[in-house]
Amino acid sequence: MTSRQKIPLQFLLGAMLFGAFALAALLSFVWVPHDVATLDIAARLAPPTSAHLLGTDHFGRDLLSMLMVGARTSIAVAVLAVGIGVLAGVPLGLWAAARRGSLIDEIIMRGNDLVFAFPSLVIAILITAVFGPSAVNAIIAIGIFNIPVFARVSRGAALSLWTREFILAARVAGKRAVRISAEHILPNIANVLIVQGTIQFSLGILAEAGLSYVGLGAQPPTPSWGRMLAEAQTMIYTAPRLAILPGLAIVLAVLGLNMMGDGLRDLLDPRLRRARK
User: Averaged over 171-195, what is the pLDDT?
Assistant: First the structure.
């Protein structure tokens, strides 16, 4: 990035929007207004007051505290799931690109197609049927679905580089495919992977919310935005804020990440930036 290159406005807005949730999630490790595991039936469905800035839920738990800890749960699940996709999918994609047209390439790509045939929700159902519902199993399910995504992206980006002159020079110098992939291919496709990682991060938050909504994600008493929505659906008319607040948190967090992804795409790809001017 040159000194004259400006950071896209949408990236800044997205970073500020998502950064607020990330800060709330980090803050929840050391402080929350009220203990989310403490039930106060006498204060159930209380309106916003100085003691409870966003009110309480049907168990008397502080909504602001629930949202803060729920942000921690959603972000942690999404980060770990994307990490699984990157650590497993990128090496597979680079290996397939290095062995393009071979049996290895075909096996990896057909394996990706097989995983794509089962959405993360179906994979989560299969995993929880064996091990039971939990946040860890949600991470595994979303992570497995992310593996073929990063494998395809890294393979497609790497294929366009294997015919470049600097790669041919490295091969003439006697470098092995593994070393070429690590030293020359991976640094040149890092921008593509960063943008894709941001997109998958936002999808991971949505997937975690969906799994928690159907009871396959984080289990009580750990708060989760998706389970907060599920618990609020029977009180949508009596206490609509119980559904509006976690739903709004999901929308804004995903919106912020998508804006960051679009901004990163413009920032890291000068051709797109010039085309939009």
Answer: 91
Domain, as residue range, for 190 = 9-28+61-276
pTM of the entire structure?
Answer: 0.89
Evaluate whether residue 34 is within a structural domain: no
Residues 6+ apart with CB under 8 A from 276: 266
pLDDT, tens digit, 9 for 90 and up, residues 126-154 = 887 788 888 999 999 899 999 999 999 99
**3-state SS string for 186-228:** HHHHHHHHHHHHHHHHHHHHHHHHHHHHCCCCCCCCCCCHHHH
Give the CATH number, domain containing residue 120: 1.10.3720.10
Cis peptide before 221 (omega within 30 of 0): yes
